[in-house]
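ok posting inputs for the FE2/S2 (inorganic) cluster job
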Amino acid sequence: MKELIDILKRDRKLLPEEFAALINGMSEEDALYLKEQAFQVKEQFFGNKVFTRGLIEFTNYCKNDCYYCGIRKSNVNAVRYRLTLEDILSCCEEGYGLGFRTFVLQGGEDLRYSDEDIEQICRSIKNKYPDCAITLSIGEKSYESYKRYKEAGADRYLLRHETADEEHYRLLHPESLSLKERKQCLWNLKELGYQVGTGFMVGSPFQTAECIAKDLAFIKELEPAMVGIGPFLPHHDTPFKEYPKGSYELTLRMIAILRLMIPNGLLPATTALGTIHPMGREAGISWGANVVMPNLSPVRVRKKYELYDNKICTGDEAAECRSCLQRRMLTVGHEIVTARGDFIPYTFEA
Ligand code: 5AD
Ligand code: FES
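and the output
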């Protein structure tokens, strides 16, 4: 296994069967070796600096019905909300004062916001905060729509592929969604010049090591700037409520593998990781992550953006999360920086 880890570090890739072997066959000792290698690469590219993004969850309406997600349209118990442009701008104002230079606008696939609305949101933020980056995370849209958002000032886009295995994709989503379409969106976003983020859940129902190997192969092919992964966590009002949560340890190992694959990549220690374990985000950093994304949404809506049960930070003001994370990062020797934290392309030796 150590040899595979060395090859991964050197070549930044493995064959699918090698990835599967690594995922299935790692001992505790191998995993610690992997962690060391990933941490070293992270240090080499980013030192002890951690980038931060202010997450604004601006709508929890969604036209989709993903079996794992708490804000799926069939969940009649979800209390729905939308933030206005004014709400969003006041989140940004508070965030800017706290040192955030990237705002992530995330929402369900909510048809109430037209392309003009999204453009207006982007333009307004860019106009007020020209030194900030805007990341959109609002799902599958047409090439034309993505183009319009880009021209209105969006810099980055997050769209997790969720799983790169066709059959697995169908087990997680209703027929209205397809892996092919999802991948096409990601390619379109890349072509339009976005810094693109993708990702997947670790331990989603029916996931196998082969599925994860395919995820990694797809990520290699896509060459995203960002990869967000977190454990699957069940939500009590979804068809997957009885399924077990994903593995904390495997999630950390996956972060380390991704760090070796994409040395200059932006890898968040996600909220789901902080939910499955009280020190999950700190551990994420120690295993190679270099981004944290605290919530800037108004506290009155926080609990309503519940993708999974027991989500952390739903009662905390933005300022509390910011100082909490600063302290937490310090416990693992890291420092949150006030910077956009753009992806910097790097040419590796052959
Ligand atoms: N557990 C963990 N992650 C989830 N997501 C959605 N539902 C869950 C869940 N139950 C993730 C998906 C989505 C991102 C916004 O949140 O990967 O892309
Ligand atoms: Fe939100 Fe700690 S990060 S309370």
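notes: The first helix runs from residue 2 to 11. The first strand starts at residue 49 and ends at 52.
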